[in-house]
């Protein structure tokens, strides 16, 4: 809009400031008047709000001057300034028109992209300052250009001769304008975010966590979180520690991440070297964090402990959101100015490490691993930790044995054990403990070792180094050592062993007295003390937990007969089944959140025991207990959305049932049914349907015709058909399940109503879907708050369904209201998991439909952050990137192409997992290609 068409208005503050800056730069103020017209503040703000429309409706530089206009660039008043400048230049310069046009094109391309998605942008002090800086620079350049032309306008030749100098001046101005344009864009985005939050009071609550996510007023700094104790007798490799310090120590002027991998064979002392460096340099770091990285579950759990210790999450937080804690810690590491050291121990599987690796950080990261490739990626360099050579081994053994063995007769003998044990530090430590404990002369030990060498070498290579020490154990200490061989080697909670054994001792059917020392505090302490003296275990007094080296576990297992392996496997199954809460049962449909913390304590040990199952050839007397344990744990993992781990345990469960010959039983049906439910959530619908149909077939063959389990299977098959998109078959099964449940008066009839409503919505019948869902007996009389307060995730998912119904009906405000409430519920109950990703994508979509793109971007960024840390969440990663791409494309944002590329990469990763459930014919820029990667509705 031209100024001449308006009544006279006062000059706005922005232009007053620009004029003042202009005067201070000693330019003729008339040049500024030539370049720009008078605008009011209202016009300025109006232009900021309607940039996109202005650019669509207006020619970029007039008919006679074909200057292109960058989409979503500066509004009309700035282009008017450039037109005035162009007219001043072009009048006498017809013969150098092309050079001038290039200058104008580059200048316009440098102008900032103002986001066109806000209804109200507040010109606060920060935004005003950046706008003034930009327009002052632009006005100064235009004035200099006009002065340049004014002096030479009568003679074309001087202009040609001086044009190279003018071009150099222009390039310098262009760089400054580009820098200032970026600042304007950032401040505009910030101002738009503020306006978006004021737009709706409910949205302020919704995004509160986004705006304060990196502010943690309760941080415990300095923080030293290292659950392992340092062995003071362990030999110090000074050269190795100096090398590590040179790479990792924080230094003034050093920027970027500092990463190093310690790699080598098991037992070479990698963990002890990392501990020595950690304890030696703890004063140089504000924060030191130790993470076990041998599985995604353990790594996430350790991140949870770190987050609580550091204060990133409250110690009293109800939700056991390990992956959310991992995301928060990684975000804190990326944002903090503190110096920090992060250690990933036992990172032998580098794929696991990918989920926990912090990106965009400035800190020190140390890895211990057997995989040389870690030194190439993700670490920037590596150090090979070798076994001791003759000199180091001799010195190390002398230190381990202590002064009582430091006499001349031992000078030659002390080098022999190092040679016999291959210089492995852990083996030398165990051997020295054995010699000291037995008060044995070195020459006697060498005779004993050589006499039994053939026997020992026939055992597993990793085990023979520790057999002497283990063989000396008796009584309760020997039992405890064997039990520990079947549990995860880290964080073995003493209270869990104590409580489980106490409960078992009160059961009449349990008659194995071998565990009775565990509930006796004195006997338990004595057993631990003997193992500690022999250096076979370590103990963290703060957490009251035990840890044991993996090679010691292998040595213990190799020394057990098949019958003893079966016996101790059975004992561990009974202990863990006693300790693991029964948070699942086919007869229960309430999700038990209060038991999740207890489940987390046992989880790693159940998974470790499942790995040991293949090593136990037979003779198990408590196989049913083991199967029950796996079913409980698998259901908890499904409930908590650890889908990959749930599938792994279910595979072991099915193997155990097949080994038993029990493939036509209720438990086999339960396992197949559970596997199908996990696969539905992961969008593997074809495989899910096979498992769910098999479960139904078994139940139809063995259960009474009115058993409630029949209704569960019928409904689940219909649910899978809905996700698959075969809606006719889906409706047949779902109607059948509804009739069945009504006939037997089953309390789970609401499940059938809800599934039918979902199917109707997918058929394109939102009104019928609403009528069906609101007829659910347990739902129709409850308010939204009551539904969410009941801690029933399925009811919250029903509210998600209603949100989708409202969207299909065109009632967008109600749809957003429902979806926002579900997001809040899922954040609180699930944390950073799949259902939260699902809600983030849904709410972001509603935000786009209600023209609130800035809020949508925030939600999509949160989804990307979460999905990047979750195994098998690449479908949500792809969808979030694609929706972000659509926003950027509409704005003409330079990062649009990058978002599409990231979306395609994640889509292709998901497609490889989905197989026939993926439609490869959909185009990369079609949203349907990405929505097919995730579940239609996560219940």
From TrEMBL:
Domain of life of the native organism: Eukaryota
Stretches forming TPR repeats: 711-744
SMART domains recorded: TPR (SM00028)
Occurrences of domain NB-ARC (ranges): 242-374
InterPro entries: DUF7779 (IPR056681), NB-ARC (IPR002182), P-loop_NTPase (IPR027417), TPR-like_helical_dom_sf (IPR011990), TPR_rpt (IPR019734)
SUPFAM superfamilies associated with the record: P-loop containing nucleoside triphosphate hydrolases, TPR-like
GO MF entries: ADP binding
Protein's name according to its UniProt entry: Uncharacterized protein
Lineage, broadest ranks: Eukaryota, Fungi, Dikarya, Ascomycota, Pezizomycotina
């Amino acid at each position: 809009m031209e100024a001449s068409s308006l009544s006279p208005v006062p000059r706005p503050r922005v232009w007053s400031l620009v004029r003042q800056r202009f005067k201070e730069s000693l330019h003729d103020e008339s040049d500024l008047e030539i370049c720009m017209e008078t605008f009011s503040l209202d016009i300025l703000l109006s232009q900021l709000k309607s940039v996109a429309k202005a650019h669509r409706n207006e020619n970029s530089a007039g008919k006679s001057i074909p200057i292109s206009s960058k989409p979503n660039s500066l509004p009309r008043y700035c282009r008017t300034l450039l037109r005035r400048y162009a007219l001043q230049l072009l009048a006498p310069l017809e013969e150098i028109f092309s050079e001038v046009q290039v200058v104008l094109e580059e200048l316009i391309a440098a102008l900032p992209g103002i986001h066109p998605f806000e209804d109200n942008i507040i010109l606060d002090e920060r935004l005003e300052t950046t706008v003034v800086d930009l327009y002052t620079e632009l006005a100064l350049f235009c004035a200099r250009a006009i002065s340049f032309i004014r002096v030479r306008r009568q003679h074309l030749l001087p202009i040609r001769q001086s044009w190279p100098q003018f071009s150099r001046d222009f390039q310098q101005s262009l760089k400054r304008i580009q820098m200032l344009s970026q600042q304007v864009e950032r401040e505009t985005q910030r101002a738009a975010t503020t306006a978006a939050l004021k737009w709706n009071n409910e949205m302020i609550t919704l995004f509160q966590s986004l705006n304060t996510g990196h502010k943690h007023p309760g941080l415990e700094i300095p923080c030293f979180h290292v659950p392992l104790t340092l062995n003071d007798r362990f030999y110090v490799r000074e050269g190795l520690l100096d090398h590590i310090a040179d790479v990792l120590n924080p230094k003034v002027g050093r920027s970027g991440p500092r990463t190093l991998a310690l790699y080598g064979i098991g037992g070479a002392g990698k963990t002890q070297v990392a501990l020595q460096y950690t304890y030696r340099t703890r004063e140089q770091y504000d924060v030191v964090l130790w993470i076990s990285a041998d599985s995604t579950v353990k790594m996430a759990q350790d991140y949870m402990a770190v987050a609580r210790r550091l204060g990133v999450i409250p110690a009293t937080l109800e939700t056991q959101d390990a992956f959310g804690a991992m995301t928060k810690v990684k975000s804190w590491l990326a944002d903090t100015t503190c110096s920090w050291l992060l250690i990933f121990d036992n990172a032998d599987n580098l794929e696991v490490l990918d989920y926990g690796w912090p990106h965009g950080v400035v800190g020190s990261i140390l890895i211990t691993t057997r995989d040389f490739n870690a030194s190439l990626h993700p670490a920037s360099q590596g150090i090979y930790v070798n076994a001791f050579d003759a000199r180091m081994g001799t010195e190390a053994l002398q230190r381990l044995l202590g002064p009582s063995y430091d006499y001349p007769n031992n000078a030659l003998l002390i080098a022999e054990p190092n040679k016999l044990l291959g210089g492995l530090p852990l083996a030398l430590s165990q051997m020295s403990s054995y010699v000291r404990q037995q008060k044995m002369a070195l020459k006697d030990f060498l005779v004993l070792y050589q006499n039994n060498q053939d026997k020992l070498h026939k055992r597993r290579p990793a085990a023979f180094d520790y057999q002497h020490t283990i063989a000396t154990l008796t009584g309760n200490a020997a039992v405890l050592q064997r039990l520990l061989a079947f549990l995860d080697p880290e964080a073995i909670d003493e209270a869990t062993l104590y409580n489980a054994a106490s409960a078992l001792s009160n059961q009449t059917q349990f008659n194995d007295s071998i565990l009775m020392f565990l509930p006796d505090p004195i006997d338990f302490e004595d057993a631990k003390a003997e193992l500690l003296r022999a250096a076979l275990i370590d103990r963290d007094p703060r957490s009251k937990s035990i840890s044991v080296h993996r090679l010691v576990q292998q040595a213990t297992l190799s020394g057990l007969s098949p019958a003893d392996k079966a016996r101790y496997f059975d004992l561990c199954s009974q202990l863990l089944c006693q300790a693991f809460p029964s948070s699942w049962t086919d007869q229960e449909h309430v999700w038990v959140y209060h038991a999740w913390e207890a489940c987390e304590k046992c989880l790693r040990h159940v998974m470790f025991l499942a790995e040991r199952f293949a090593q136990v050839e037979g003779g198990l007397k408590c196989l049913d207990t083991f199967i029950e344990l796996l079913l409980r744990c698998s259901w908890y993992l499904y409930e908590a959305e650890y889908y990959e781990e749930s599938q792994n345990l279910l595979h072991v469960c099915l193997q155990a049932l097949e080994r038993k010959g029990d493939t036509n039983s209720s438990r086999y049906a339960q396992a197949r049914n559970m596997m199908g439910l996990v696969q539905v959530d992961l969008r593997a619908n074809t495989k899910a349907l096979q498992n769910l149909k098999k479960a139904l077939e078994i139940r139809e063959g063995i259960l009474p015709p009115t058993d409630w389990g029949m209704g569960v299977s019928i409904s689940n098959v219909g649910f899978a058909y809905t996700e698959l998109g075969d809606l006719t078959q889906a409706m047949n099964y779902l109607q059948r399940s509804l009739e069945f449940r009504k006939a037997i008066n089953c309390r789970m009839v609401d499940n059938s109503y809800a599934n039918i409503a979902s199917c109707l919505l997918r058929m394109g019948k939102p009104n019928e879907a609403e009528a069906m869902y609101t007829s659910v007996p347990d739902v129709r009389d409850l308010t939204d708050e009551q539904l969410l307060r009941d801690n029933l995730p399925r009811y919250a998912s029903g509210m998600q369904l209603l949100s989708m119904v409202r969207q299909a009906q065109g009632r967008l405000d109600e749809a957003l209201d429902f979806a926002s409430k579900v997001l809040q519920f899922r954040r609180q109950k699930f944390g950073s998991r799949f259902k939260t990703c699902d809600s983030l994508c849904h709410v972001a979509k509603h935000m786009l439909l209600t023209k609130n793109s800035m809020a949508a971007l925030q939600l999509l960024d949160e989804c990307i952050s979460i999905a990047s840390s979750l195994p098998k969440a690449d479908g949500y990663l792809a969808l979030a990137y694609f929706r972000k791409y659509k926003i950027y494309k509409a704005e003409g944002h330079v990062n649009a192409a990058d978002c599409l590329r990231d979306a395609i990469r994640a889509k292709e990763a998901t497609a490889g997992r989905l197989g026939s459930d993926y439609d490869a014919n959909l185009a990369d820029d079609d949203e349907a290609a990405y929505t097919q990667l995730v579940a239609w509705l996560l219940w």
